[in-house]
Structure formats: structure tokens, C-alpha cells
Amino acid sequence: MVKYIIMMIFMMPLCFKKDMFWINQFYYFILAFFFVLGFSGSFFFASVGYIWGCDLLGRVMCLLTLWICALMILSSGKIYKNFFFSNAFLFMNLFLVFSLFCAFCTLDLFIFYLFFEVSLIPTLILILGWGYQPERIQAGNYLFFYTLFASLPMMVGIFFLGSIFGSLDFFFLRGDINNLFLYFCMSFVFLIKTPMYLVHLWLPKAHVEAPVAGSMILAGIMLKLGGYGLLRVLSMFSTVGILVNFILISISLVGGVSVSLICLRQTDIKSLIAYSSVAHMGLALSGILTFNCWGFCGAFCMMVAHALCSSGLFCLANINYERLHSRSLFLNKGLLSVAPNLSLWWFLLCSSNMAAPPSLNLLGEIMLINSLVSWCYWTMISIAMLSFFSACYSLYLYSYTQHGKFYLGLYSFLPIQLREYLLLFLHWVPLNLLVLKGEYFSIIV
Questions:
Q1: Could you tell me which residue ranges the NADH:ubiquinone oxidoreductase chain 4 N-terminal domain spans (predicted)?
Q2: Is-contact 286 278, C-beta < 8 A?
Q3: In 337-415, which ranges are continuous DSSP H helix?
């Protein structure tokens, strides 16, 4: 793992050299390529150092981080064209990749907490520095204070765990702690980051005000930090978790149905995609909280699928925004007659968002449905409504943007660039080919 971290450190001077924007993006793909070559037949800890190393769960999340961050730069051609703070943008992107990579590669709970919090800083700067509207300051405040409010109790809980186990290494955190207060101290920050319904209000605001790169990293990686942390931490609280998790699962499932109905009333494309993230991650969170093998594996699969699918939809929304200067569904109409090639990508990603085969979303939902129904058969009601409304708002998004009378501003609709087609291709192909390696998602436990 250290060799990848050293390469990121040596990439820092490239961020400040002239005309190195696309070279930086190329190096992220090189990093991802070498990381794929490093996958071995062993699914246990590899590259173990003093505090560095990762199992299959950490490896997949690291690879996802490198892949999404490479696509972030590929999607930000507008920043390169304007030459306005493009060097600072590259440095913030590298800082973010470094903090997320270290968070997923560490074997120590406190180091994970440290980089978990450090990743908030570049994300906040991306929203405040390259956001579109003055409301981005309010969105940044929501993001900052929601995370800060729950992270301080977690720090106290980490020190308490260190005094109990004598170590903060993940390998030694194997006991069963029957303490409700400590359980909420350790898990609440991850519930906010996932996000769970009722503590999700920061997410739509942050997504709507963020630039496309900020939306991609939020949907692709930052939301997954919550699920990753829960998968690491909850094994210590099996007794108390079994007693109280039915409350959190009920909130997540009912909240997912409620958010799905909210999606059907949205007029902003990015807001609709952001609210759909709350519904999908609520289902993944419910799977984790059931404490069974199906739930853990299904949540892991859903996290990877949602990262690629949601990030691709935000790229599509940005492609429209750069041409029409509006995210309103009332103005983004009739695109089928103007850009039929782009309509194909809208259809492919919207169908993946509703878990149509052969996407990875379908595999994740099947495992999560098995997990939740075996936990309590009454969850079938919420799961059925979630699946139905997921199809409803995905079709609503597709039909409203592609059909109808097109807006007069579309007469000046710029052609789609090859870079943008490549960007969408690199989202969709892994999303639909990873289902062929479904065994990876069945052996993390």
C-alpha cells in the first residue's frame, strides 16, 4: 500500500505545472491499473505493514476511490478550459484521493477515524470553491456540522475501546460489548454519512450546490465511508445491536419509501438523483443492520453498484447543465430529438438505477431482499414499495428529460464530445461487467 501512497505524494508537483491537467488524470488511471494487477488469490490481509494493509473489502473500496477520482477529472473539462484555479482543483482532488485511500488501507481504528475526518476538508473546499450558486455556503455548513456533531462522541468511544482491548487494530477488536451508549457513539457518525433517513438533510443540499466532481465523490465514495465503517465496527456490538437495530431498520425502510415519493415531486435533476441515493443507501444500511451474511455481502455489492450508477447520472446531469445552464426538468425536455446518442446513456443508467439486469444493482438488491425477508417477513411491504417507486422515479427522470416539446434554448445545443462519451462508458461498463465476478461480494465475511 505504501508504494501507492508514495506515488500520490510525488504527484503533488504535477498539480502545479502548466498544461498537466490531463496528465494527472492519466496517472490516476495508471494507479488504478496497477492496483488491479495487485489483486491476488488471497482474500485476507495483504501488504501488511505497521498500520497499513487491506482485505478484499478495503481493496475494492480503494480501487473504487482511484477509479471515481480519475473520472472526476475527466468530467471537469470546463475547469480546464477556463484555466481558473485548475491547479488548486487538481491538488484538492489529490488530497482527497490520498485521505480516502489511507482511510480504506489502514488496519488501525484511530487512523481510520483520522483520515475519515480529513476527507471532509477537501470535499468542503470543492463545494465552496467550485460550486455554482451562493447557497453553497449553507450546503457546506450543513455538511461540516452534521459530520462534526457526531464525530466527537466517536473519538471518545475509540479511546474507550482502546482502554478495553489494549489495541485499536481491527484484528483485535473482536469482543462483544453490551453498552448501548457506546454503540450509538461509535455508529451515529456512520449513520449520518451513509446517510440514514432523518439525518440525511445535508446530502441533497451538498449535491445540488456541488460541482460535478464534488457530486461524484460524494455519491461515489463519501457515502460509502459510512457503510465501510459500519461493516468494520458493528461486529463488536452484536448483542446490543440485535436488540435495538429493529428501530434503525424500520426508520431506514419507511424513510426510503418516503424519500422515493419525494423523488417523484422533484423538479431539479440533481436533487432527484441525490434523494434516490438516500433511498438506495437506506436499503443497504438495513442489510448491514440485520447482522447476517446476506446483508453484509448485499450491502457491499449495493455500495459498489450505487457508486458507479449514481456518479454516472450526475455526469449526465452535468452534461445537460453545461449546455442549457439549467437543471430544471421543465427546461431539460425533448433531448431525444436533439441528442439521441446521449438518450441511450440516459436509458442505460436509469435502467441500472432501477436495478434492471444485468446491472450490479440487481445482484445487490437480491441479496438484500434475502437478508431482510429472512430477518422479518413484514419488511416485504417496504421492500416491494421501494422497488416499485425506484422504477417510478427512474422512468420519471428518463421520460421527462427525453420526451416532450424541446426548449427553444436547445437550438444552440452543443455537440457531445468524445471525452463525455468515454466518461459515461467508463461508468456503465464496470457496473454491468462486475456482475460476472459476483463471488467477490460473497466472501467479505
A1: 1-103
A2: no
A3: 340-353, 360-375, 379-402
Could you identify the residue written with the cell 452534461?
A: 319
By C-alpha distance, which of 213, 212, 229 is closest to 270?
212
Q: What's the CA gap between 55 and 134, in Å, rounded?
A: 42
The set of residues, in sequence order, having a beta carbon less than 8 Å from that of 14 and lying 6+ positions away, is 20, 23, 24, 27, 90
Report residue 396: phi and psi, to 5°: -60, -45
pTM of this structure? 0.94
- The contacts of residue 387 (CB under 8 Å, 6+ apart) are 355, 365
* pLDDT digit string, tens, across residues 341-379: 899 999 999 999 999 988 999 999 999 999 999 999 999
The pLDDT assigned to 41 comes to 47
CA count, 13 A, side-chain hemisphere, 295: 22
Determine contact, residues 362/355, Cβ cutoff 8 Å: yes
| Environment class of 44 (CB within 10 Å of its CB; exposed 0-12, middle 13-18, buried 19+) | exposed
What does the DSSP assignment read for 207-243? HHHS-HHHHHHIIIIIHHHHHHHHHHHGGGGHHHHHH
Q: State the Cα–Cα distance between residues 224 and 227, nearest whole angstrom.
A: 5
**Residue 366, burial from CB neighbour count under 10 angstroms (0-12, 13-18, 19+):** middle
For the cut 70, the answer to whether the pLDDT of residue 48 exceeds it is no
User: Which residue type is seen at 342?
Assistant: L
Instruction: Tell me how far CA of residue 208 lies from CA of 204, 216, 237, 315, 351, in angstroms.
Output: 6, 12, 36, 13, 22
Residue 74 in this model has a pLDDT that exceeds 50: yes
287 neighbors 372 (Cβ within 8 angstroms): yes
pLDDT in tens, 388-401: 999 999 999 999 99
Q: What is the rounded distance in angstroms from the CA atom of residue 417 to the CA atom of residue 290? A: 45
Higher pLDDT, 420 or 46: 420
User: Where exactly are the structural domains of the chain?
Assistant: 2-442
